[in-house]
Amino acid sequence: MIEMFPQAQAFATELIDKFKLYSTEEINPKYSHTDVDFSWSNYVWTDKKFRRAHIEIVDASATKKMWVMHMCIFPHYNCPDPIFGFDIVCGQSKITGAFHDFSKVGDSFLYEWYQTKMSKLNWTKPRQLPDWALQIFSPNMLAAGNIQTQEELDQLKNNVIDNLNFYLYNVGVPYANKDYSEEHNHYCRFQKKNPHTPAMMVNFGVDRDTFMNFMDDVLFQEKV
Predict the structure, then answer these.
(1) Are strands 39-46 and 66-74 parallel, antiparallel or unpaired?
(2) pLDDT in tens, 35-63
(3) Dihedral of alpha carbons 73, 21, 30, 201, sign
(4) Local structure of 17: helix, strand or coil
(5) DSSP label of 147
(6) How many CA atoms lie within 13 A of 20 on its CB side?
(7) Which of 44, 57, 80, 93 suits a disulfide with 27, CB 3.0-4.6 Å?
(8) Where are the chain's structural domains?
(9) For the domain with range 4-219, which CATH number is right: 3.40.1500.20, 3.30.720.10, 3.40.640.10, 3.40.50.720?
(10) How far apart, in whole angstroms, are the C-alpha atoms of residue 218 and residue 214?
């Protein structure tokens, strides 16, 4: 049995450090707090290559025996590149859910690269996806559960890091003479249909109205 929480936090720190290197501006979101029960931390960046990158970390390991991270990178609206997504839900000794995708926006070499690469994986433990997820995630989305060995954890981390490095290096080239804001809004609308996201945060102790505002303001912003 492995201790998942310290490794998950170290992984999160590695991801945050990458954005400090790649991004030109960090935005301070208002929805973060630390109290005696759990910590809720949010990091947001913007850059000439992408319009918004967000990492959310919820550490309820002390009271709920859970640690959660969400990461999403949105290209600029005039870019056909996919939306990068990664979510991980950890218990004390295993990852109960890990989800990673390059969700399609337009015709993009990055999207095709991801489909080819991830179609060759043979170590994942597939999970059945709900309808809202099927509306936005790609055919070769990584959806795994019950990860509880060091080998499985390392495979997950290495794949996500490799994909993130490739994404950050290539995203935003070239731009297109098209506005993809509706594709971004479509992604956000269906993400917000996930009932488990607000339910989990309310269980941790966040006021439901506060979190629903967070969903609109920070987590999955829609362009009006």
Answers:
(1) unpaired
(2) 657 889 999 999 999 999 999 999 999 88
(3) positive
(4) helix
(5) B
(6) 6
(7) 44
(8) 4-219
(9) 3.40.1500.20
(10) 5
